[in-house]
């Protein structure tokens, strides 16, 4: 299998979003890093295996699973998450609840990459056909949790998030790319 070719950085369209805390979902309020989407970072000819091989070769994250997204709003307090759409398309909600007035609802498709900072609530709203992602976490993180916004999670989990270091490099582009740009800017 030939190596996967990514969209050149000079042509990559990136959306960055800060999502305020909502109820017991901290979203991006605890750290200066935005939720990001790399639109069509990978070509439509990708396969789950080719994405996993590419992410592994870059070496910032390690692929952990292939699946859709849970319909239950949840967040992670121990890791930042990288999601790559490898099949189909879907409408996703980021922000902890569809009733959150500051939520972000987006349609994602094959080839899109989402950088989900720890604390950002997320859930599947609608699978628009055969939706599947590769989920990855920083190489040095072997433990990720699933928090659902219960009130008893807040003190411990929010403190965990505040202490997390940002990704050591861009999971798709390595020693350059949007993840490093926001790491320098803090926005």
From TrEMBL:
Signal peptide (residue range): none
Pfam families: Cupin_1
Stored SMART domains: Cupin_1
SUPFAM superfamilies from the UniProt entry: RmlC-like cupins
Domain Cupin type-1: 44-154
PANTHER family: BLR7373 PROTEIN (PTHR36448), CUPIN TYPE-2 DOMAIN-CONTAINING PROTEIN (PTHR36448:SF3)
Name used for this protein in its record: Cupin type-1 domain-containing protein
Lineage, broadest ranks: Eukaryota, Fungi, Dikarya, Basidiomycota, Agaricomycotina
InterPro entries in UniProt: Cupin_1, RmlC-like_jellyroll, RmlC_Cupin_sf, UCP019307_cupin, YjiB-like
């Amino acid at each position: 299998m030939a190596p996967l070719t990514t969209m050149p950085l000079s042509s990559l369209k990136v959306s960055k979003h800060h999502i305020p805390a909502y109820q017991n979902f901290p979203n991006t309020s605890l750290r200066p890093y935005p939720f990001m989407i790399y639109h069509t970072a990978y070509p439509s000819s990708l396969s789950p295996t080719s994405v996993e091989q590419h992410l592994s070769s870059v070496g910032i994250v390690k692929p952990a699973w292939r699946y859709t997204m849970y319909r239950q709003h949840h967040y992670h307090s121990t890791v930042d998450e990288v999601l790559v759409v490898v099949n189909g398309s879907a409408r996703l909600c980021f922000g902890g609840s569809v009733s959150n007035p500051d939520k972000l609802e987006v349609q994602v498709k094959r080839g899109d990459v989402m950088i989900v900072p720890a604390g950002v609530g997320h859930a599947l709203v609608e699978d628009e056909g055969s939706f599947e992602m590769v989920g990855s976490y920083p190489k040095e993180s072997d433990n990720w949790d699933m928090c659902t916004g219960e009130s008893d999670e807040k003190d411990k989990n929010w403190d965990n998030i505040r202490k997390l270091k940002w990704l050591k490099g861009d999971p798709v582009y390595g020693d350059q790319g949007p993840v490093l740009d926001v790491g320098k800017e803090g926005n």
